[in-house]
């Protein structure tokens, strides 16, 4: 039995280490029961974990060199939160939000893989390369890279230096849930309703809500098929949109406990609304989508926000 106050004192990042270790033999589930002291205890009960695949869509322009640690921190903390909620992420990869070598979007990192290495150390050189500073030639849509890759994950591979076997796609057949997390720290290319943001002639809402006849995500293709719409979860972690000025955003974010002040030089609000509106519209159509504030997520507020997000994703994976 682990006392509830102990878990709170350890914090999400530290306590998640134990959860991740336990997940390898069967996940952990916390059950609150009446007790003395602070009114509750936590019993750690071995259970069969749920399994997830994840795709992280990251803005890797040259300013993101300073964001590499924050990106990796968000991913690690979210995986810890998911482990605490009973979900193990079996595979996760990184896709640049914009750009790509040889004029096409590609997965630039993933694990498990033979040469994956440390994510934070990998992201810095990728950002400084300049290959991902802006969209591909002729592309104006904010989510173009995601739309193109999501429809070809049944064949997408990792770079040869990370995964020498180029004959096999990185992702395996579907698990319990597919998670897509987009992190956008700078202004969007266009607004959700702009013609410039259309994807293959479709609005982003229509593109990311298309389904097969049996209610599965038509726009998402993995080896062996796709996921039911209820088992696809999109999260948008972004700076503010359509309203907050840069001055106001800097003051708000800089006042948050634990916020890395160095990020104020590389993040900015967006005058155009894209992800806030996209999450809302997808939700109206029965898709699982939500938006989190980037400043809050990287600050001391982030642990609770990610813990609650992990619980919501776990609930979706179990339904």
% residues in beta strands:
15-25%
Q: Number of domains in the coordinates?
A: 2
The global form is globular
Unreliable spans are 1-10, 31-41
Total strand count, please? 9
What's the pLDDT, averaged over the residues? 89
Chain-wise SSE layout:
Blueprint: E1 2-3, H1 4-23, E2 27-33, E3 41-47, E4 50-58, H2 68-84, E5 87-96, E6 109-111, H3 119-128, H4 144-150, E7 177-184, H5 204-207, E8 232-238, H6 246-254, H7 275-284, E9 288-293, H8 294-298, H9 302-318
Task: List key phrases describing it.
single chain; 319 residues; alpha/beta; 6-stranded mixed sheet; 9 strands; disordered N terminus
Can you tell me about this structure?
This protein has helices spanning 4-23, 68-84, 119-128, 144-150, 204-207, 246-254, 275-284, 294-298, 302-318, and strands at 2-3, 27-33, 41-47, 50-58, 87-96, 109-111, 177-184, 232-238, 288-293. It is of the alpha/beta class. It has two domains: 1-48, no CATH class; 49-318. It has a six-stranded mixed β-sheet, sandwiched between helices. Strands 1-3-2 form a three-stranded antiparallel β-sheet, with helices on one face. It is globular, with a radius of gyration of 19 Å. The two termini are 28 Å apart. The model is unreliable at 1-10 and 31-41 (pLDDT under 50).
């Amino acid at each position: 039995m682990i006392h509830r106050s102990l878990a709170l004192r350890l914090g999400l990042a530290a306590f998640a280490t134990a959860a991740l270790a336990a997940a390898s033999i069967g996940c952990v589930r916390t059950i609150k029961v009446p007790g003395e002291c602070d009114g509750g205890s936590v019993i750690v009960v071995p259970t069969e974990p749920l399994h997830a695949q994840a795709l992280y869509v990251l803005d890797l322009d040259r300013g993101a060199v300073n964001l590499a640690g924050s990106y990796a921190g968000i991913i690690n903390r979210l995986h810890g939160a998911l482990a605490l909620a009973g979900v193990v992420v079996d595979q996760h990869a990184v896709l640049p939000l914009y750009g790509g070598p040889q004029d096409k979007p590609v997965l630039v990192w993933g694990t498990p893989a033979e040469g994956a290495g440390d994510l934070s150390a990998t992201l810095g050189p990728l950002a400084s390369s300049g290959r991902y500073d802006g969209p591909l030639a002729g592309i104006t849509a904010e989510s173009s890279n995601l739309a193109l890759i999501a429809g070809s994950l049944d064949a997408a591979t990792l770079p040869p230096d990370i995964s020498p076997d180029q004959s096999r796609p990185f992702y395996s057949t579907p698990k319990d849930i597919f998670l897509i997390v987009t992190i956008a720290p700078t202004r969007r290319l266009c607004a959700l309703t702009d013609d410039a943001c259309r994807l293959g002639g479709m609005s982003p809402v229509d593109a990311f809500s298309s389904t097969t006849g049996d209610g599965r995500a038509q726009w998402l293709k993995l080896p062996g098929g796709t996921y039911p719409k209820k088992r696809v979860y999109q999260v948008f972690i972004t700076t503010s949109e359509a309203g907050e000025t840069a001055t106001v955003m800097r003051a708000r974010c800089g006042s948050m406990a634990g916020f890395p002040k160095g990020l104020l030089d590389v993040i900015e609000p967006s005058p155009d609304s894209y992800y806030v509106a996209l999450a809302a519209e997808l939700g109206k159509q029965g898709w699982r989508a939500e938006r989190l504030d980037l400043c809050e997520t990287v600050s001391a507020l982030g642990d609770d926000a990610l813990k609650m997000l992990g619980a919501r994703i776990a609930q979706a994976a179990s339904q």
